Amino acid sequence: MEYNVTHNEKLSRFEAEIEGLISLVDYRRRDNVLMVTHTEVPPQLEGRGIAAALTKALLDYAQNNELKIRPICPYTRAYIQRHPEYQDLVASIS
């Protein structure tokens, strides 16, 4: 299913409003690295692929803007493991 995911730069997150509820992926930007800190989908919306759509939007944004990702959020880490095409976005720890 397709969701209308928007990048809310002011709040440093990607979000989607579905059935009046907000689902989101939070990040903090440090230079050219997005530290992905949290993914949240309301319980009544779980199981619909919303977290995956949000995470894909964030990763595509990073890829299109030559940014790296530091996946602090366990969901984001798992998503990248399942989608190796995004592995090159993971920032090395220095």
Task: Please describe the structure with a list of short key phrases separated by commas or semicolons.
94 residues; 5-stranded mixed sheet; Aminopeptidase; single chain; alpha+beta
Structural description of this entry:
The protein is α+β, with helices and mostly antiparallel strands. It has one domain: 3-Layer(aba) Sandwich (Aminopeptidase), CATH 3.40.630.30. The chain has a 5-stranded mixed beta sheet with strand order 1-2-3-4-5. A hairpin with a 4-residue loop joins strand 1 and strand 2.
Whole-number mean pLDDT: 96
- CATH topology description: Aminopeptidase
Number of helices: 2
- Fourth CATH level, the homologous superfamily: Gcn5-related N-acetyltransferase (GNAT)
Helix percentage = 25-40%
CATH class: Alpha Beta
What order do the SSEs take from the amino end to the carboxyl end, as H and E? EEEEHEH
> Strands across the major sheet, in which order?
1-2-3-4-5
Principal-axis shape:
globular
Characterize the biggest β-sheet: 5 strands, mixed
Proportion in β-strands: 25-35%
Name of the CATH architecture: 3-Layer(aba) Sandwich
SS class: alpha+beta
Distance between the termini: 38 Å
